[in-house]
Write a structure and sequence with these properties.
It is a single chain. With 205 residues, the protein is mostly helical. The chain contains nine helices and two strands; from the N terminus they run αααααββαααα. A two-stranded antiparallel sheet has the order 1-2. The protein starts with a helix and ends in a 7-residue tail after the last helix.
């Protein structure tokens, strides 16, 4: 117990970059403060995607194990959390693929406001009882293809690659306001396109 406390106090004086350097140089204990700093954020990110507490806990551990193993190759071309964030996203996607779960549109939850941060996509295993996976996947792909190119690109980056607004804006060389506007119009158009289908009504396209 005392050793753990002493270790914690020892590393408190190092900033994040120094902890990364020490870890890369073979100081295994220097990685622990990085885990403590980001563990809850990574867990929350994963849980929002997999909607399973036990799976999220396991995946969180897997993320930090992969980060530990890959850290010697971390070139610091992005922030450490951005790098960690992408590992978590990849682990979540792999898990969902392995579980053969389908990402579906919860149309009744689609935000009307571009600034509304409620998630548009959720994982609903029970949806299998009312919708066939292949049919739903085809409908979603067709619906997205109806979006204008700019809206389509922003939508995919946001909801399928899970990139934050700021990163999308940087990647597309557009302002954050423009990205939010694209998302607003994309969600609005998809809401119109998909609502009849989710209400068991015929599609116009």
């Amino acid at each position: 117990m005392n050793n753990a406390l002493n270790s914690h106090e020892k590393y408190k004086r190092y900033d994040e970059q120094e902890l990364i350097t020490r870890t890369q140089n073979g100081d295994a204990e220097a990685f622990n403060p990085l885990v403590r700093k980001y563990q809850q954020k990574i867990y929350n990110l994963i849980y929002r995607k997999v909607r399973d507490q036990e799976a999220a806990e396991d995946l969180c551990q897997e993320v930090f194990l992969k980060a530990w193993q890959a850290l010697p190759k971390f070139k610091r071309q992005s922030a450490f959390y951005t790098w960690l964030y992408q590992i978590a996203v990849n682990c979540s996607i792999d898990f969902l693929r392995q579980q053969n779960k389908q990402i579906v549109f919860a149309c009744e939850e689609l935000p009307q406001n571009a600034d509304d941060v409620l998630p548009m996509l959720q994982v609903h295993p029970s949806t299998y009882q009312v919708l066939e996976q292949k049919e739903l996947g085809d409908i979603i792909r067709i619906a997205i293809s109806h979006l204008p190119p700019g809206q389509r690109s922003v939508f995919r980056l946001r909801y399928f690659h899970d990139l934050p607004i700021k990163m999308i804006a940087s990647r597309m060389n557009k302002s954050e306001g423009t990205v939010k506007t694209h998302l607003y119009h994309a969600r609005r158009k998809l809401r119109i396109i998909l609502l009849p289908y989710l209400q068991n009504e015929p599609l116009e396209w």
